[in-house]
Amino acid sequence: MTRRFTLFDATALTFGFAFLYLPLLVLVVYSFNDSQLLNVWGGFSTRWYVAVWNDGPLLIALRNSLGIALISAAIATFFGTLAALSLVRYARFWGRRLFTGMVYAPMVMPEVVTGLSLLLFFVAIGAERGFWTVVLAHTSFTMCYVAVVVQSRLISFDKSLEEAAQDLGCPPVKTFFTITLPLIAPSVMAGFLLAFTLSLDDVVIASFVTGPGTSTLPIEIFNKARRGLSPEINALSSLMLLVVTLVVVTSSLISKRAMLPQR
């Protein structure tokens, strides 16, 4: 028996979507504001999009953030997948509890503690803070999220497929790359995208371990916000929102097309 869609449901849904998306709509509208004041409409203009394109430090920070996110997400995906395989396929080994705690610890540890501990570690070993220290820092706290995502898929994985391949003479390594990896590829990709997003969004940890000339985009935006918000930030945020929307719509269309029956 299905429940009727009531007025209360419609009202709650309307307020929920308004709370989530109305601020984004206001941000996009005021990115075309000609005035330098955020809350005063001065007419339609695209000057702030041109300002974003001509802002050298902001573009450098964007390039740094994309590079750091791609590299750290790739490394985190590799080691996170291995960690998930170890936790699922090897139920008993020496130090399993310690290893499990070390994998999951960054998820519950405050970012301030993680950033400070990594800073002290890099200072102790004499590492020069910069691009690669941020990459290592982001890898250390995004790897656990990849492990959780991949582990959830491996728990429900049908091992009989691997056993059938090995019974037919397929070596274990080849079985993994031809049977296991293609089947868990969606979860691996989901872990990669999650790690990429977390790295691209991080401010706290990056502010501890970054060095001169390696400012990331969130840090650059935070510094601009402390000096006074500008509609240029609205334009940049609108561009990022456009990119995310295009990626989501494209992936949805591809998934929907893949689900259609083949003729």
CATH topology name of the largest domain, in short, is MetI-like fold
- How do the helices and strands follow one another from N- to C-terminus? HHHHHHHHHHH
Regions with little confidence, pLDDT below 50 for 5+ residues: none
Q: If you average the pLDDT, what whole number results?
A: 84
Described by the principal axes of the CA atoms, the overall outline is globular
Q: Work out the count of structural domains.
A: 2
Q: Identify the CATH architecture of the largest domain.
A: Orthogonal Bundle
Q: Tell me the structural class.
A: mainly alpha
Give me the number of helical elements. Answer: 11
CATH class of the largest domain: Mainly Alpha
The major beta sheet can be summarized as:
none
Report Rg. 23 Å
CATH superfamily of the largest domain: MetI-like
Question: Helicity level, as a percent range?
Answer: over 70%
Strand content is under 5%
Total beta strands: 0
Kindly report how far apart the N and C termini lie: 36 Å
Features:
263 residues, mainly alpha, MetI-like fold, 11 helices
What do these coordinates show?
By secondary structure, the chain is mostly helical. It is built from eleven helices and no strands. Helix 2 crosses helix 11 and helix 3 (56-89) runs parallel beside helix 6 (131-155). It is globular, with a radius of gyration of 23 Å. The mean pLDDT is 84.
